[in-house]
Amino acid sequence: MPHREAAQGAIAQRRRDEIVGAALEIFAERGYHATGIADIAAVLNIGHGTFYRYFRNKRDIVSHVLVHVLERLNDTIRDENAAAADTLDECRAQFARVAEKLFAVFTEEPALGRFFFAEALGVDRDFTRALTAGLNTFGGVTQAYLANGVAKGFLRADLDVGVTARSINGMILAAAIDAFDSRDPEKVRTRWLAAAPDLILRGIKA
Amino acid sequence: MPHREAAQGAIAQRRRDEIVGAALEIFAERGYHATGIADIAAVLNIGHGTFYRYFRNKRDIVSHVLVHVLERLNDTIRDENAAAADTLDECRAQFARVAEKLFAVFTEEPALGRFFFAEALGVDRDFTRALTAGLNTFGGVTQAYLANGVAKGFLRADLDVGVTARSINGMILAAAIDAFDSRDPEKVRTRWLAAAPDLILRGIKA
Amino acid sequence: MPHREAAQGAIAQRRRDEIVGAALEIFAERGYHATGIADIAAVLNIGHGTFYRYFRNKRDIVSHVLVHVLERLNDTIRDENAAAADTLDECRAQFARVAEKLFAVFTEEPALGRFFFAEALGVDRDFTRALTAGLNTFGGVTQAYLANGVAKGFLRADLDVGVTARSINGMILAAAIDAFDSRDPEKVRTRWLAAAPDLILRGIKA
Amino acid sequence: MPHREAAQGAIAQRRRDEIVGAALEIFAERGYHATGIADIAAVLNIGHGTFYRYFRNKRDIVSHVLVHVLERLNDTIRDENAAAADTLDECRAQFARVAEKLFAVFTEEPALGRFFFAEALGVDRDFTRALTAGLNTFGGVTQAYLANGVAKGFLRADLDVGVTARSINGMILAAAIDAFDSRDPEKVRTRWLAAAPDLILRGIKA
DNA sequence: TATGAATGAGCCTTCATTCAT
DNA sequence: GATGAATGAAGGCTCATTCAT
């Protein structure tokens, strides 16, 4: 029940999705604070009063954008089953697949990453909390993979799966930032996909 | 020469530092956009006109806050010499020292981390660039440590030092975020200090 | 296209005209610098935010006020045809008509003159330039009358029409200032209308 | 007694004059409202607090500047004696002398004219009144010349000396404005000095 | 006497939000 | 449902003026 007065039909839902999409693009482009409701409406060629028929206010839309982004990321890794890997090689293959997919989604929809990593943090306190909560969710997913490996014995028994999961997510974040900054994202992708799995699995020592 | 018309004496410099400190606190607390110049002035019990004797405008102060934060972090790791480690154990000890120091600085001045990781990204485009540039500097430092290890043979010869350096910084970032969110930062500290060095050096595989 | 985002309809144009009228009154009353946007809005019983829907900023409105004033003055003398007079008497009659009209317009709309002669010069450099350009236009009109008389032989052949035109406009200015300052503008009007034509014509006639 | 606390000595008076001079220059240059007290002080290399030891406030200085300008103009025409001319030719010569002197003073001190005609009107209501009063004084002087001529019979008996005096001053004003706007003030001067006396005398002579 | 650091009234401008049409 | 005109809270910034040193 998004907004008391909002339309409930399928067309209305489509309109809502359009607004979320446009808002994501433009928030990612200019940042939350530099973006006006009128800017979002202008992109969609709708009156900016119309916006308020679908979302309560500016704070409301950015929440919905975050949900949208988190869902897109979730979709990306949903297919993988944390318990599917039984050996280190299968685990490595799984890592590679997830990494590929993440790179793909961030490459295809750059706004996703830019919003998530760059523009979303300045919204406000509550939003930062929500964002962190979303990150923790992904931390939980990663943790499940690790726990599976430890249980099946192909990962170190003494592994702190919580800390390790967060570390891996920090690496993903670093990779994403690297890709955003780079003029040649493809090259960045190749380097990370080549180096990261070994780094995680084997560490850096000789 | 920070502000053309600002006083240049030692007292003036102290006042400037006070303003930077207060701004850091309050930016970290409420975020850049939610903070007014009047808020900063109120904390210091000065008229808000006084602020403008020391900084050109709101954008100016946040730049100075960033510089301050980066300098604080630099101070933290300055003492270590990237080329000092000759063995894996020395390297591990070096890692531990730096990690301790970073945890200490973020624990003693929580605003530092909150500003750096949470509120600083929403300022504007140029600021994000400056922030990223600052992060890259730290990436370069980390990379120097890794290159030393590779050269001396106690780190993998096939290590991609660039990607690895960024990864490690991503882990530091994850640790910092974890600490901010936690109600028991001490516990977080203990866990990370116990787990991270092994994670980096050995990886996760059994 | 006065303001990109402003409404373009007839009602909007009326609103724009109302604002220009109110601004003229109040600029003439208090002067440009002593007038706030809020003052203009208050006169019209509109929110001061509304002002910005119709004019870009304070500088914008004063430019429009100037254009309005110049147009009003132009309207006043438009009906006369500089080439219509063929004799000195016709010329004298023409002078008298224009003088009557000018007195009428300044008497009916005192703000017009007060803005034009008293408050408009302190706006800024560019505005003064625009104002002077407007004055020069009127100088050109006056000059056309004189040139007509010289060509037809009822004005002195050796007349410097440029200087004379400016002189006459200076006299008009003096008359207007005299009228503003006087407590009895009607008396001023009578005196000037009686004395000025003779003064001019004896000076310029062949 | 300019300012209660101001110094009364000769050095103090010199300082006061310096400030008036600097203020005249900079008011003429940028206009009253665009000029800050600090700007005036900066020109003189004095602290801007010092300004307030000599003048009550910003409004005070501009009044003194006006007095200074009016005195300068008065000095220019003081030497002439309105009653000295006994014939039309002597009157013409007198006019020419005064016109020369006025052109000279405005050419030598352009700030004088620019302040008087261009920047002084936007100050505020009271100031405009004072300025008009000053103009009226000059109107009185001009009127004395005319009355002398009428009394001695070389100017028209039916001359409205009041209106005519103001007209002449209006012409002077027009000439001054012309000179300010021109890139070649010397040429302007030559044209006006050639044309104006004839224009006036033919209009006013018996 | 000179200074300039401190102050805050005041003003312009933006933009999220409302609501009559 | 859609629109966009109207609104005013909010905040950045300037600068005349004061006063302690």
User: Quaternary arrangement of the chains shown?
Assistant: homotetramer
In the CATH scheme, the class of chain A would be: Mainly Alpha
Write down the domain tally of chain A. 1
Q: State the secondary-structure class of chain A.
A: mainly alpha
**Portion in helices of chain A:** over 70%
The CATH architecture term of chain A is Orthogonal Bundle
Q: Give start-end ranges of low-pLDDT stretches of chain A.
A: 1-5
Tally of individual helices of chain A: 9
> What is the CA-CA span between the terminal residues of chain A?
56 Å
Order of helices and strands of chain A: HHHHHHHHH
Strand content of chain A: under 5%
Shape of chain A: elongated
Give the CATH topology of chain A.
Answer: Tetracycline Repressor, domain 2
Q: What's the alpha carbon Rg of chain A, rounded to whole Å? A: 19 Å
Arithmetic mean pLDDT of chain A: 90
Largest sheet of chain A: none
CATH superfamily of chain A: Tetracycline Repressor, domain 2
